[in-house]
Amino acid sequence: MEGVIEPVMVHFEDLDAMGVVHNGRYVLLLERALAAYWTRAGWAFDPASPAFKDVFFVVREFAITYHVPITRVGPVHVQLWLDHLGNTSAVYGFRVLSADETVTHAEGRRVQVRLDPGTLRPAVIGPELRAACRPLERAAASLGLDARTG
């Protein structure tokens, strides 16, 4: 299994009127998993004391495919990895799994772009953050990807 697995909780307010996790809440499940991972990696959620000076990212694209609805509150697992780490962007892949990891509820990708805080234009991802991303990277060769940057 590639990437990392983060356990996250499905809360009552994540359910819709039919008793299944609302489609828009899968974004939050991924956010909870990313927050847990990056907190352990040393990134504080305090802009006044950033662990990595070049962390100013915005989401450019989010795509998700739903497979099996989540029908109850409680733990699920989110597997996440980086499919691509370019000069200015990162492409996360993810799967939302049952807690026992036998059911894939959803899968998708999220593209983030690093911005210069002053100009709000794309900016290069620095070596310190690039090194922190290594545990999440998938081998491009194993995925049949080219060596794109971006």
Report on the architecture of this protein.
The protein has three helices and five strands, in the order βαββββαα. A five-stranded antiparallel sheet has the order 1-3-4-5-2. Helix content is 18%, strand content 33%. The relative contact order is 0.22. By secondary structure, the protein is an alpha+beta fold. The radius of gyration is 16 Å and the shape is elongated. The protein has helices at 25-40, 127-133, 140-143; strands at residues 4-10, 57-66, 74-85, 89-98, 104-114.
**Strand tally:** 5
| Helical segment count | 3
Q: What profile does the largest beta sheet have?
A: 5 strands, antiparallel
Low-confidence stretches: 140-150
Which structural class best describes the helix and strand composition? Answer: alpha+beta
The residue-averaged pLDDT reads 87
Radius of gyration: 16 Å
> What is the helix fraction of residues, given as a range?
10-25%
Arrangement of strands in the largest sheet: 1-3-4-5-2
Order of helices and strands: EHEEEEHH
Strand-residue proportion:
25-35%
Rounded to the nearest angstrom, the distance between the terminal CA atoms is 26 Å
General shape: elongated
Question: How would you concisely characterize the structure shown here?
Answer:
With 150 residues, the protein is an alpha+beta fold. It is built from three helices and five strands, in the order βαββββαα.
